[in-house]
Write a structure and sequence with these properties.
three-stranded antiparallel beta sheet, alpha+beta, binds iron/sulfur cluster, Alpha-Beta Plaits
Length: 196
């Protein structure tokens, strides 16, 4: 009959409208920003740097190897390695900047990092009136504790902790084995007594 399709469509729409108020799972609209979105663990916005312990700079896992800087497709990472008082390169960054006005959130930096140092954040509210200064994040802005990493990505962070603990255990075993097989230093022979 003419118009049956329209009536069926309207019935389904009305059924879903009423049904969604009885089943909260079907209410997909979020009243953002009053209601905070429930982000899935694998959601990603921009990168941040993980640090262990209390000190955000001394505890950074980053060794300034620059792997992420090389692999970043839009080249929005800039790293300068730190040096000691004798000018010798140290395994930590003096400068670590990410221009998040350019970053496309691809996660390649996090995937290539051999030290589990750079991870993808959940923080996405970065709107600002100054895209040049306020979207250029520095080492201090990027450093976040391992506890924060656990709070946003608990499964991944727990797996990383287990992996790092295993690597540390193996390194300690290797060091102990090397120490055990090291050749003993020969004792210095006694000097000849002076001739009578
Ligand atoms: S997420 Fe992608 S674009 Fe952004 S800093 Fe990492 S590698 Fe570069
Ligand atoms: S974040 Fe990772 S890949 Fe990038 S410089 Fe630091 S240790 Fe290397």
């Amino acid at each position: 009959m003419f118009g049956t399709g329209i009536l069926k469509g309207l019935y389904i729409t009305a059924k879903n409208l009423v049904g969604s108020y009885h089943d909260p799972e079907r209410l997909t609209t979020e009243q953002y920003p009053e209601e905070r979105p429930k982000l899935p663990e694998n959601f990603r916005s921009f990168p941040f740097l993980v640090f262990d312990g209390e000190n955000a700079i001394d505890g950074l896992r980053c060794t300034a190897c620059k792997m992420c800087e090389k692999e970043c497709p839009p080249q929005c990472i800039y790293i300068v390695a730190d040096r000691d008082e004798n000018g010798k390169l140290m395994k930590r960054p003096k400068v670590f900047d990410i221009d998040i006005s350019v970053c496309m959130g691809c996660q390649i930096c996090a995937e290539v990092c051999p030290f589990e140092s750079i991870k993808m954040d959940h923080h996405f509210e970065v709107a600002t009136d100054n895209r040049f200064e306020k979207l250029l994040l520095h080492r201090e802005d990027l450093a976040k504790p391992n506890s924060y990493y656990h709070s946003i990505r608990p499964t991944e962070a727990a797996a990383v902790d287990a992996q790092l603990a295993e690597e540390k255990r193996k390194a300690e075993e290797r060091a102990a084995a090397r120490a055990a097989t090291a050749k003993p230093v020969p004792a210095t022979p006694p000097s000849n007594p002076p001739a009578a």
